Amino acid sequence: VAQAGTMSLVPNPAHETVNVQYHLETGSxxxxxxxxxxxxxxxxxxxxxxxxxxxxxxxxxDLPSGAYIVRLVLAGGHIDGMLHxxx
Length: 87
Hints:
Layout: E1 5-10, E2 17-24, E3 29-35, E4 41-46, E5 53-59, E6 66-74, E7 77-85
Antiparallel strand pairs: 1-2, 2-5, 3-4, 3-6, 6-7
């Protein structure tokens, strides 16, 4: 279920790190998950409980070049974005 809110990934494409910036109209983020195109979770980033606005700096230096899905995991839903890694 998609939720009301926004997420941006900066820079995108990324090389070493990406900033996941988010703002939610309601609710809060439980975690941030990064999936490869096969649907496997390659990274999970915990966030502080009860946060509806924030920036998470994510190290992606060990991920190979390619496309990834960044998912904000919310209570009862999620917000997805596409991240590209270039080496």
